[in-house]
């Protein structure tokens, strides 16, 4: 197993990369509008507080009449309490709607990415590790949720309050704050340089986390092999190296981000303190009142706090922008295999499908120089059983892959029941085909649901009938909870032969007109093989069947045998005809039957 190879990434990430989330936000305009309304109310309440404080100082504390002073203080404190109530209610409602939006948009995003990945062709999975996809579905979407459900709201609120405070400061102290604003340019330019550094390291950190996730997913899916080669320590070290690399990248990101935050806070505080100093001088000179100075102090505190929070939020936005960019990369991928815009509605055949391959040539994307099939032609009549034999790498599994449209051939034509398969919708095409693979897939659910996967709407009785036909009912009934027994991840609680019979029952339940058997009895012992072979022969009646087999004893009774070698059809005929011909098939038969 090789280490996860990081894929090439775009060089720059900016907060505008979050624009890819807009399609996921549009359905929730009402909730967004309400969140914005309450956000603005919270900002307005915050900005009203210094004004109320100024009135309290100038109107309630400076008055010489004690009675008027007492009544004035009550009124001013009621004003402050009213501002606090407005701030509390609007902040609570803003928090609710923003949190709801974060959770809802993240769920929609996860569903969209997962659904899109499921529709990618095998070519995608040849170049992208499963662990990386899982990292994007979990880590990246969590970052997006943090920003949409928290940081973005905080940033907008502090942006509004900060700008409001700045406007009030400029309005009430125009000369001093004009100086401050001019000097603020000296803060912005270095901050932009820091920001670029943080952006690059944020994206690199997320990529390194995805690399370690890819390694973990690969190893955990192959744990029996890892343990059989006593490679636990070696794999643990490999994972530790990947996580250490991710940690060191994260430390560099945090260091750069910390420097950015520190610079913004210190430089901004210095400039605002200069403005405060000028205000105190104005009070001493009698140009402004004490209440005016108090108002100025609170606005300066609001502005400084807003700038500090915006520095933090900007870092979160950069990380989320990188995560959003990675997710949008997945969503922008288009599978090279697509259903046609106007698919043909082919009639459901009776007695099996007719199948035609005409001069098929195909190269796997990962091996463009080597033809997996070259000039392959085959005509299969309805109800026929055709066996594909030949050495490993001859192209047998490629025939199945092209028939299922996992790939499209470079040239040639494949027709099912007289209709080219690229004119059928992928759903219609694949619903007509049942497959029993050499390595059966068992899902982490019950035996009943594993078989029902072939036909989701099937009744329990139909599932049991299919299990009987595949000789699976006997061992399923003996499981602790029968058909409701949980089979474990990838069917670890079953033997290889039992997993194979579950897969055969699943295909039998689907009842397709075309059946593909890829070494379907290879994992069975002699007794089970005889039972399953009989079940398969029964299932193959009234349908077309293609069989891949290395053990020629299983295909001697096939109607037609096709011999492939290096992607080319070299012989075809019945078992007796091919043995009599003395060619490639006869050589394979002599080796196996003599042994």
UniProtKB/TrEMBL annotation:
It is found in: Cell membrane. It holds the Pfam family ABC_tran. It is a multi-pass membrane protein. InterPro entries: AAA+_ATPase, ABC1_TM_dom, ABC1_TM_sf, ABC_transporter-like_ATP-bd, ABC_transporter-like_CS, P-loop_NTPase, Type_1_exporter. The keyword Coiled coil does not apply. Its main location: membrane. GO terms for molecular function: ABC-type oligopeptide transporter activity; ATP binding; ATP hydrolysis activity. The chain crosses the membrane at residues 32-57, 77-97, 155-171, 177-195, 260-277, 297-318. Signal peptide: none annotated. Residues 355-591 form the ABC transporter domain. Keywords: ATP-binding, Cell membrane, Membrane, Nucleotide-binding, Transmembrane, Transmembrane helix, Transport. One of its GO terms (biological process) is oligopeptide export from mitochondrion. Residues 34-319 form the ABC transmembrane type-1 domain. One of its GO terms (cellular component) is plasma membrane. This is ABC transporter-like protein. It comes from Hydrogenophaga taeniospiralis CCUG 15921.
